[in-house]
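The material for today's practical consists of a large collection of protein records. An example says more than a description, so a record of this kind follows:
***
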Amino acid sequence: MLIFSIFIFNSTSFSKNLEKNNYKLEEFSYVKKLYSDLNLEKDLDFNIFKIALNGYLKIDNRKKNLLTIIDFSKPSTEKRFYVIDLNKKKTLIKSYVAHGNKSGGNLATSFSNKLNSHKSSLGFFLTEGTYNGGNGYSMVLNGLETGINDKAKERSIVIHGANYVSSSIINTQGRLGRSFGCPAIPKKINKKVIDTIKDGSVIYIYGNDNNYFKKSSFV
């Protein structure tokens, strides 16, 4: 019950939304109702959503009622990037996203927090500010999990657009192109995505990796 008390304290508008919709403050029924209201059944596994939401509730310094979930248990040929507005109970963006070129081919199976590994990192991040760099308009990610993704800034793991993230690339080579570890998204929606989630929203990156679940304090 404690995590839901924290959530209500820190998110007044969403708390009012809870009361208006008469949600039960019991973990399973509450999360299941929200999952159903978001119409995520066909897109995202319930257990992944539950992990993401529970971790989100533990992050006190978040500034937006937005939760971005990246599901690297899916192949790159499927849309696996979701931006969810918890206040409006709406999925704002659903898109393709690339993983690191050393994490795997069509499916990401290996993850790392090490410099120059060219692998994706899992876990919870807070979004920060934007800049224009070698990949154009980009957004800084702050990895919140020690030993899991806390070297994200040092590794220059950011959100950016890439030409190799598109349905045409999938049609040509049977999978998306891959990054050096960044969760790269299609260039045509890059600015929209970044401007929506920048400056203090939560991102959760999920992957099939038992080591993550052994180490993480968020799950």
Remarks:
- The chain has seven helices and eight strands.
